[in-house]
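re: ur msg from earlier - yeah i can do the NAP complex, just paste it... oh wait u already did. ok heres what im feeding in:
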Amino acid sequence: MIKSALITGITGQDGSYLAEHLLAQGYTVHGLVRRASMFNRSRIDHLRTGGQISPERLVLHYGDLNDLTSLRRLLKQVAPAEIYHLAGQSHVGLSFEIPEVTVQENGMATLGLLEAMRDLDYPVRFYHAASAEIFGAPAAAPQNEATAFNPVNPYGCAKAFATQLCRVYRSAYGVFACSGIAYNHESPRRGENFVTRKITLGAARIKAGRQAVLALGNLAGQRDWGYAPEYVVAMWQALQVATPRDYVLATGKSCSIREFAIAAFAELGLGLKFEGEGVAEVGRRTDTGAVVVQVDPRFFRPAESTHLVGDASLARQELGWAPQVTGAAVARLMAKADFAHEQKVAG
Ligand code: NAP
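and the outut:
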């Protein structure tokens, strides 16, 4: 039987890779797209225009996390076997600027979907895109599924709320709900206002002579960075098991923003010269040919998550999931892709 899946957030980084993965597995994929003043489907255009995927196998539906009535209707109409709930305001730093939208979309909308699922008269499996930000400032590293929640930003609070609700609905109502507690995962499709993409785009544009300055925040910040296409495989695997559980999805290796920047610029043959403690305003070339970077305090967050590095042993044991691409390797492939794009644009 052909399986069908609904992806909220199909136009995002993860949603686009997940759509590719599910289509390759033979699924019919339904995607929720929200109305915007301009089309926002560039990450999935290749699936819709290549002629290889028939329109019946990839169907887009207008909807919005802030309109739960239409989501309920959509669930009834589509009757998916699996729901991958990836949509929401996903930027941690921005969650300090738009906390209510962040909490509404990442917290309350997840609750709304869980409630809608309870009312369905057929079984459905639900994946919730949780985040390492639920741990925020953890007491120990690495973190695993048993680590206590301690979020330090509105985004982490909302994800913690939704993660706990999935646990409650699982035990109280027997709902098949699973949270993937994912650490940062990047790709050439990462949004341009995330630090990794800012760095790799900056490197590509500086190399192409199209950008002079790159302002970065706290370069000492450490992250457990993986590669998004590997993470969407785990999302799918998490819904193929007999019993739903939460899984930490992480590489287990941490890399600083500074190291990430060095790797990205080095991939394009550019050296970085660090001044003082940090790195910051990129763009000025020294007499040695290196690019100087300086820290811009505007990009510091009111509170930083610390020591976020994950232990994905459970996912490895139960799902057989073992990510291969980490930290500097992610930086290199992103910088390469961004520079290739720059060259294409330049003709
Ligand atoms: P992303 O690229 O920012 O994509 C977010 C998606 O949500 C987009 O498709 C966006 O639509 C959609 N969306 C936002 N608000 C919406 C609304 N009100 N109604 C309907 N759709 C809405 O994020 P991502 O990197 O793919 O991440 C996917 C999920 O995993 C997110 O929930 C994120 O918080 C979580 N997560 C990501 C990471 C990571 O490192 N990438 C780590 C942990 C957890 P538009 O295209 O129209 O903006």
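cool cool. The domain at 195-219+257-304+335-346 is CATH 3.90.25.10 (UDP-galactose 4-epimerase; domain 1). ping me if u need the other ligands too
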